[in-house]
Structure formats: structure tokens, C-alpha cells
DNA sequence: GAGTGGATACTCGGATAGGATCTGTCCGAGTGTCACCGG
DNA sequence: CCGGTGACACTCGGACAGATCCTATCCGAGTATCCACTC
């Protein structure tokens, strides 16, 4: 029950893209965060497949957020990278063994599955309440100085 | 982000142990649920290490709940099998790269980590609200007939 | 000087190895039970 | 008939392979840019 490490990278990238005014290449994002460029590219591909970011090819290409940062929740990013599958999968072991309950009596999930599903919903609800724009605002207030502004400026500088 | 399959087995075993009046061997629990006996034993060892169940060796040995089912939460079982590690680990990538924020400004977790930790807390809180006794009661009301009574009787029968 | 064509350099995308964790299995250590033997 | 002793059978516990998923990497497909050439 450990979240993939790529989730953290993807979230940071989304926040950074908030401060960008033009497409940002994956290599640039990797350099900024000091992580593997090729592996980060894989995460960004996941975001692209999920429709959270739009990729533009060519010389001045890169990634751009497809919609407003307020309309992208943290849950969207997590599900894009991690997959939409639930954290708990019930294998219906109550229908196995010598004391198996008949399938006709198994219309509703069992008590254990209900409990796990409820916890899963609570987790997702907490992630859905926060948007990428919220994260961006938090970053802005956490530190002194215009961090996001400096970030946008660094993205525009050529090396 | 997928929960280990052994969690489901462990939870079912805890509910079954509620209906038992004497130690139940791992092999018996495996037969009841129709799962691998050796692998289930591994999960029960985790429960034993966590102090949720007490193991008695010898001929009439097996596993017994150490405390009242009301005092064992679902979270206890999940953490026993899955480990107490949080679902999200922050690698502090904000301190890396050319725009790294100095370590002196990183006294509090970053916005992303805070959000993920909050979701983790919500998930754990939902699991903590339900006890094994609650599960047992739910199972009793879900189906017609005294399912737990039949279960206890089956456990006492020798094959 | 303006337009056009092509070469170029840069970007993303999917297919490809390596490592770690989860799943599943095995055999040895420990203990209560039972039968047997002696008093 | 009762107590002691020994062997036994049954249990758990940790050490050992196999499978699956995560991590990391590479090379090919596609496109906007730039430059040279022509009109």
C-alpha cells in the first residue's frame, strides 16, 4: 500500500506548469526538479493520456495544462498516474470453502468490502477537495518572495 | 496503490475468530476460506507480531484474539499486515535542482505533502471507526440465520 | 526583397531491460497430548 | 489403580523460490523552425 513515487513528481510538475506561459519540455521539468528526465517523461505521458495536459511537438514544444488549474483536482493527477483502480479489491472469498454463502445471497458487497470501500471514498474525497490551483496558492503563501514568478522566469530563460 | 490481498484474508480470519471459543489452527482457517494454507499462515504471523492474536503451539494449538473484538479496529489489522508506513512519502524534491529552496525554509512539509498526508489521515480515520466486533455484527445482520453460530459449530467439528 | 522548398534540430510516444516488492512454498523448532510402563 | 516417562503428532515461526509490478532507459515518429535558393 505505497503510492508510486511518480505521483509526487507529477503533482510538482502540474504546479510548475501553472506558472508557465508557454509549453515546457519534459527535459526542462526534469532539470528543474533534479530527477531522471526519461522517467519523468513517462509520468507526463500518463498525464497526457488522461487529458490533463496537452503535448505540443516540434522545436518549441512541451506540455501545457489543458484546462484551468482550478478544474484539476489532486485526485485527477493521482488517478492519472496511479490508475483509476480502487485500493481494495474484494475476491469474494465468502463464496468459497465448505461454509460458502450461496451466490444468490451475495447481491451486496460484504461488510469487510463495504468498510474498505468507505475508507477508499474518504481518501479520494480528501484528494478531490484540493485543486492544483489551491496547491499553487499554498506554495505562494508558504515562502517569502514571489516563488512562482521566479519559477516562470526561470522556465523562460534559455540555457 | 493497491492494497495487499492478504488484508482481506486477515480481516475475514479476525471475524471468524470472533465466533471461536478455542484456538483455531491456520490450516483450518485456510480450509474454511478456500485459500492457500501456507500463505495464510504468513498473514497470521503478521497479526501475531502486531499483538492482535495470540498463538498457542502444540496439538490443540492455533490462534486466539488477544483482546475483545471491540478493541480491535480494522486499521489495526490493515497496519499489521501492510505495515505502518504511510501511503505517501515525500522525497523533498523542492530542495533539489537549480531553483532549490534552502533547507532552512523547509521546516514544514510542502503543500503537496500536506494534502497527501491529510488524505492518508482521512483513510485511516475511516478504518479506525470500524471494529472487528462491528464487522461481526454486520455479518450477523446481513444474512438470514445464525451464520456466526454455524461458523463456530463448524470450527468445533473434527474432520 | 519575398516566397518556397528542404534539411535540421528538437519534441513526444511507445517498446524495451533491471530491480524491488508481493505472492506462494518449504522445512525446522517448540509444545501439548497420548500411550505405555512401573510402582 | 495411579503416577511418571517417553515418543509422537500437531502447531507455529522464519528462511527460501517465483511472479508481478514499479523504476529506469532507449530509440523511432512527428513537427515547427531555420536557412538557402529561386523568382
Identify the CATH architecture of the domain at 5-84 and 132-156 in chain A: Orthogonal Bundle
Order of helices and strands of chain A: HHHEEHHHH
**What is the helix fraction of residues of chain A, given as a range?**
40-55%
Q: Order of strands side by side in the largest beta sheet of chain A?
A: 1-2
Which structural class do you get from the secondary structure elements of chain A?
Answer: mainly alpha
Largest interface: A-B, 62 and 63 residues
| CATH topology title of the domain at 5-84 and 132-156 in chain A | Arc Repressor Mutant, subunit A
Structure notes:
Chains A, B: It comes from Amycolatopsis bartoniae. Chains A, B: This is Rrf2 family transcriptional regulator. Chains A, B: It holds the Pfam family Rrf2. Two copies of one chain form a homodimer. The first copy, chain A, has seven helices and two strands. The first copy, chain A, has a domain at 5-84 and 132-156: Arc Repressor Mutant, subunit A (Orthogonal Bundle), CATH 1.10.10. The mean pLDDT of chain A is 94. In chain A, 52% of the residues lie in helices and 5% in strands. Chain A has helices spanning 6-18, 26-33, 37-49, 74-82, 111-128, 132-142, 147-156, and strands at residues 53-56, 62-65. The radius of gyration of chain A is 20 Å and the shape is elongated. The interface between A and B is large, with 62 and 63 residues.
Amino acid at each position: 500500500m505505497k503510492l508510486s513515487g511518480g505521483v509526487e513528481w507529477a503533482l510538482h510538475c502540474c504546479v510548475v506548469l501553472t506558472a508557465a506561459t508557454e509549453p515546457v519540455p519534459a527535459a526542462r521539468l526534469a532539470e528543474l526538479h533534479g530527477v531522471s528526465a526519461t522517467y519523468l517523461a513517462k509520468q507526463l505521458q500518463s498525464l497526457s493520456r488522461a487529458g490533463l495536459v496537452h503535448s505540443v511537438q516540434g522545436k518549441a514544444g512541451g506540455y501545457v495544462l489543458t484546462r484551468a488549474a482550478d478544474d484539476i483536482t489532486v485526485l485527477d493527477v493521482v488517478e492519472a498516474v496511479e490508475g483509476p483502480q480502487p485500493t481494495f479489491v474484494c475476491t469474494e472469498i465468502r463464496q468459497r470453502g465448505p461454509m460458502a454463502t450461496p451466490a444468490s445471497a451475495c447481491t451486496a458487497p460484504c461488510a469487510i468490502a463495504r468498510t474498505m470501500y468507505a475508507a477508499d471514498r474518504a481518501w479520494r474525497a480528501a484528494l478531490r477537495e484540493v485543486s492544483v490551483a489551491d496547491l499553487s496558492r499554498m506554495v505562494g503563501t508558504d515562502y517569502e518572495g514571489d516563488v512562482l514568478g521566479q519559477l516562470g522566469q526561470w522556465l523562460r530563460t534559455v540555457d
